[in-house]
Amino acid sequence: MSCTLTSIYASLPRTTRGQPIVLGADPKGKTFLYANGNSVFIRNIEDPSQCEVYTEHSTAVQCAKYSPSGSYIASADNHGKVRIWGADNKEHLLKNEFQPFSGSIKDLAWTSDNQRIIVGGEGKEKFGHVFSADAGNSVGEISGMTKPINSVDFKPTRPFRAITGSEDNAVSFFEGPPFKWKTTMSEHEKFVHVVRYSPDGEKFVSGAADGRVILYDGKTGERLSELGAPAAHTGSIYGLCWDSTSRFILTASGDKTAKIWDVTTGAAVQTYTFGSELKDQQVGCLWSGNTILTVSLSGQITYLDRNGQKPLRTIRGHNKSITALTVARGESQGTKIFSGSHDGLVIRWSVDGREMINITGDSHTNQVQSLASNSRGLVASIGLDDTLRLFNSSWESYDRMEKLSGQPRDVAVSDLNIVFLVCGSSICMYREQQGILVTHPLDFEPTSIAVSPQGTQIAVGGKDNKTHIFAVDGTALTVLRVLELRDAVTRVTYSPDGRFFACADNMKNITCYQLPNFEPISRDMWRYHAATITGLAFSPDGKKLASVAIDTHLMIYQPETITKVTQVKGAHPLNPVTCLAWLDNDTLLTGGNDCCLRKWNIKC
Fold first, then answer.
1. Which parts of the sequence belong to the Anaphase-promoting complex subunit 4-like WD40 domain (predicted)?
2. 130: which of 36, 155, 346, 349 lies 20 to 30 Å off by Cα?
3. E strands within 134-266?
4. CB 245 within 8 A of CB 261
């Protein structure tokens, strides 16, 4: 049996309030870069569903930039490590790794000859450094600032110059190589968030938390003018980007707007307004060829129309850990994917990953704990805000919300539109038509729940090292049998064809049973994970069983041939896998702490 990764539904950039994010552009204008966690995402500009992920950093990546030749990418992380790796091959082979200082690197830039890199950030011994991209040796000294550097850049033409923007409200100017401090400009009244040179090298610009954008001479550092004086924006400037002609500048601000400025007149020629909520603050931007895009505090990427107000496209997704996943199937509504994340967001994806819609309305205010759906299009979500929320898979908004008496652990939905969930020390049954919640107290603490394909039976895993099977008759539950396991039960699941049942325990054992008599067929044989199993599901035809775990691995079992097991180690590299769902008999989706969904093709 083979298991091949076919596509990645990428995460959005990880954002932090009050902090800019750094975007990198391919010199050829085909792709762009951003970071989330320990991953660097390379996305196609025209078709963002085409994505590659670089996951070799051991800690959170802060920035990544292409070399001017486009052959390499330099990425820097919280520990001060800079990795230089191949951009034009899928293996992304490492060329060099350096550590210019100990501490977080917030920004970096290449010289136009691909020979030198400047980094700036919050180091323990210094805030910036310039070094050779080939050997790592020092090419000057970045000094003169008293607080961390937020942004750096190089003059793209000779003679080379370097600039930094720092939290001491200053822009520093360096001549070189080797680069030495020349002067400091203290025009801004608050943190300088971003500095950028124009493509022709004649000017550079700074943007700060005071909302001002100031232009300087590219060769001398002399102040030339200011855009939109007394201030370009009413909020902090988090992003600046020049167009290829060096005449126009794009700015992104915390005042929830982005503007295009004509440098020759100092006036704004286009203003884009994004909304009124906190999440609409704009914290980064990119101008690559004819593509203009900005990133909001929510992580959403918006493609802007140079000649109009309405966005050309909005890229949605998760930028927090994905915690829940389900696939809704039905003849009327088609197949749709739903994922939930740590921040309470639920997203509906198209099967090809090209379309994504946020489920709106009365949303969860805390982590989405679990998602479940049925063939009638009913989708149920439970969250750590102690609520059950329902909606139809064809809709874009929640329909109903039910407050629960405790914290829910797991949820299942039958084709009779009955929602089963375990909450506290009880089973709750919610009848969708009547809107009635019925609670059945238990004498053990439940951890997971599953409903049989016919809806006449449920299985409840418990911390008492047992799986309890109940018969369902209306609102009544009757114990049918109890399955003994070696440790607390973590996951339970029925096969959609009704032939098998499986459960996983805290000792990482997976036991598969033959139905209807629950005869064990894999006891003590399927123990391949090294950490807690977080997801367990059968393919629609019941011929394959998949499991995922905190150990980052994916396992595929065959109930009819129990000795055949396919192991995919590092399915989500360096990140726990938290959930899974089958699209069809040969296609599996997994979600994890890397905020991505990964699609796998599985062939026997």
1. 493-584
2. 36
3. 149-154, 161-166, 171-175, 180-185, 192-197, 203-208, 213-217, 223-227, 237-242, 248-253, 257-262
4. no
Tell me how far apart the alpha carbons of residues 428 and 453 are, in angstroms, rounded to a whole number: 19
Q: Is 279 helix (H, G, I), strand (E, B) or coil?
A: helix
Q: Compute how many other C-beta atoms are within 10 angstroms of the C-beta atom of residue 414.
A: 24
Interior/surface letters 314-323, b for 16+ CB within 10 angstroms, e for the rest: ebbbbbbbbb
Provide φ and ψ at 280, rounded to 5°: -85, 0
> How far, in Å, CA of 191 to CA of 129, rounded?
20
Query: Buried b / exposed e across 424-453, counting CB within 10 Å, b at 16+?
Result: bebbbbbebeeeebbeeebeeebbbbbbbb
Identify any residues that bridge with 476 across adjacent strands, giving them in sequence order.
473
pLDDT per residue as tens digits for the range 266-294: 999 999 999 999 999 999 999 999 999 99
Instruction: Round to whole Å and give the CA distance between 357 and 335.
Output: 14
| CB contact set of 327 (below 8 Å; sequence gap of 6+) | 335, 336, 337, 338, 373, 581, 582, 583, 589
What is the Cα–Cα distance from 301 to 294, expressed in whole angstroms? 6
Q: Where in the chain are the domains?
A: 2-315
Give me the phi and psi of 279, to 5 degrees please.
-65, -10
Beta-bridge mates of residue 175: 161, 180
Give domain 2-315's CATH superfamily. YVTN repeat-like/Quinoprotein amine dehydrogenase (2.130.10.10)
Tokens of 580: 């899974």
Model confidence over 178-228: pLDDT tens digits?
999 999 999 999 999 999 999 999 999 999 999 999 999 999 999 999 999
Q: How does 347-371 read in b/e, with b if 16+ C-beta sit within 10 Å?
A: bbbebebeebbbbeeebbeebbbbb
Contacts of 476 (CB under 8 A, 6+ apart): none
Query: Tokens 């699209």 sit at which residue?
Result: 583
According to DSSP, residue 280 is labeled: G
List beta partners, residue 166.
149
Q: How far apart are CA 428 and CA 475, in angstroms?
A: 10
The residues, ordered by sequence, that sit 6+ positions from 525 with a Cβ below 8 Å of its Cβ are 562, 563
Q: What is the DSSP string of 536-579?
A: EEE-TTSS-EEEEETTS-EEEE-TTSTT-EEEETTSSTTS-EEE
The answer to whether the beta carbons of residues 474 and 516 sit under 8 Å apart is no
Q: What does the alpha-carbon distance between residue 558 and residue 569 come to, in Å, rounded to a whole number?
A: 18
Structure tokens at 173: 């100017």
**Chain segment 100-139, per-residue pLDDT in tens:** 999 999 999 999 999 999 999 999 889 999 999 999 999 9
Give 295-304 pLDDT, tens digit per residue: 999 999 999 9
Q: How many angstroms separate the most distant Cα atoms in the chain?
A: 84
SS3 207: strand
Give ∠ CA 477-480-481 in degrees, rounded to 5.
130
Complete DSSP assignment for 570-604: TSSTTS-EEEEEEEETTEEEEEETTS-EEEEEEE-
Q: Are strands 82-86 and 72-77 parallel, antiparallel or unpaired?
A: antiparallel
The C-alpha angle 552, 512, 551, rounded to 5 degrees, equals 10
